[in-house]
Design a protein that fits this description.
Two copies of one chain form a homodimer. Chain A has 213 residues and is an all-alpha fold. Chain A has two domains: 18-70, Homeodomain-like (Arc Repressor Mutant, subunit A, Orthogonal Bundle); 73-213, Tetracycline Repressor, domain 2 (Orthogonal Bundle). Chain A has helices at residues 3-14, 21-44, 51-58, 72-93, 100-116, 119-127, 137-157, 162-182, 193-212. The relative contact order of chain A is 0.09. Chains A and B meet through helix 6, helix 8 and helix 9 of A and helix 6, helix 8 and helix 9 of B. The first copy, chain A, binds a DNA duplex (18 and 18 nucleotides) through loops.
Chain lengths: 213, 213
DNA sequence: GTCTATATTTGGATAGAC
DNA sequence: GTCTATCCAAATATAGAC
């Protein structure tokens, strides 16, 4: 049982309303601030994010931010967690068929698109180039969970050897990275994802055959 | 004829010494500053570089930096140019044999090692994640030259189609990127370079055969 | 919860003496 | 060329009134 559930029970016993409208409003404002933060980060670069700009965008003064987040890094951390949740959501919603190559394509297309559609998020989650920032234990747990889910999918497909996993991650992040840095908004590398997976799949098959033969 | 050559001639006619010991000293100090800047960038992260720290490291006060570089971005630019020159140097010195696969391995190993051995340089040259920095025209010309040389090598090997080039760059940058962010100092992805190139090469051969057949 | 006012820090950059 | 002194701007963060 969580703390908030416990609180709800206590409130019922006291005859208080269960919903805390104040807390709900607080959460809504937090979400609004985060949305603004993403906008700023996308426009000015992740490193160019300032609480000042975020505050201005939501119509507040900078000090008011501290009613919602303890520090700038807390904002980064919340963004990081949001990114992880979104990624985890997409990983779990993948429509897999059991056809190994097809599922491999589906998964890696999802990954590359996820990276490409928001370079600021990509930078925050996968490049970690912000000087003082390191995700909190809670946020990092989300990242671990997402990667584990991804890994179990790959295992189901038959990709379990560490070198094979490493090769896939290199391929997909390479495609995403090139797309973001050399053709933002385009599809020059995006459209190579299927071919890359075919290439990788053929390579895997050859290796396996070679061992068996 | 360059301006400095012209100056040399004028000096000779005036009976002045050709070597300008003051200018030489100036260049030496500039180089020393750049070396310190690299050290700081490697330790504090590229974005964490400050003129203050650089000055302290070379035993100067911050304002003295401005006798050598007009601005902080000028320092970044000089570092960028240095990186390009080093890369160009390695590209031109590649010991190529004419054997396509072998040369492909040699070239990509060089590239990945170049990236991995200095993540700060990698970030500066290939990720471009510093908020205000953009290379000057002169420095960028060096980058273009390096990429063109690399491209002509690949063309000699038979990799000329844009999609093939894009696939190779995705593979190599992906390997470098993963090595840097997930196993700094190790060789988990580094040791996959040869296998990746074999995979790519086999893929290329299949495609060509398919077209011919 | 939001504001004004302010503290603090940091870091880039300039002026002018020596 | 180097220094001291200083400026300026940006940006995080806090105190306390309303």
């Amino acid at each position: 049982m969580t703390v908030s559930e416990l609180c709800a029970i206590v409130l019922i016993m006291l005859g208080e309303p269960i919903r805390d409208r104040r807390a709900e409003r607080h959460e809504r404002t937090k979400a609004e601030i985060l949305e603004a933060a993403w906008d700023i980060a996308r426009a000015a670069g992740l490193a160019g994010l300032t609480l000042r700009d975020v505050a201005h965008r939501v119509g507040m003064r900078p000090p008011s931010m501290y009613s919602y987040f303890d520090s700038k890094n807390a904002v980064y951390d919340a963004m990081y967690a949001q990114g992880c949740r979104e990624f985890l959501d997409r990983v779990t919603r993948l429509a897999l068929t059991g056809d190994a190559l097809r599922d491999l394509k589906t998964g890696s297309r999802m990954f590359v698109e996820f990276c490409v559609e928001d370079p600021a998020r990509y930078q925050l989650m996968f490049q970690r180039t912000i000087p003082g920032f390191e995700p909190s234990a809670e946020s990092y747990a989300l990242a671990v969970q997402a990667l584990r889910t991804m890994g179990s999918h790959l295992a189901k497909i038959g990709i379990a050897a560490p070198e094979a996993l490493d090769m896939v991650t290199a391929l997909t992040t390479g495609l995403a990275d090139q797309q973001i840095s050399n053709d933002p908004g385009g599809d020059r590398w995006l459209k190579l994802v299927d071919e890359a997976m075919e290439m990788f799949f053929a390579h895997m098959s050859n290796r396996t055959q070679g061992r068996l033969g």
